[in-house]
Amino acid sequence: MLPPSLHVLGSGSIGILFAASIRRALPTFPVTVLLRSGRGHEKIIRRKRCASSGMEYGGIIAKVTRPNDENETTCSLGFSADIPAEIISSDQTAATPATMIQNLLVATKAPDVAAAVSSVLQRMDTDNGSNIIILSNGAMAVRDELRALLRKEGGGASQLNTNITLASTTHGAYRTASQDGDNGDRSNLYSVIHAGIGSTFVESQPIANLFEAADLRATHAGPDEMNVLLWKKLATNCAINPLTALHRCANGYLANMDNETNVTMNGIVKEVSRVALLDAADRGLSDESIQELQYERLLSFVSRVIQDTASNKSSMLQDVLAERETEIDYLNGFVARVGRERCGCECTFNEEMVRRIKRLVGSVS
Question: Where is pLDDT greater, at 312 or 148?
Answer without folding.
Answer: 148
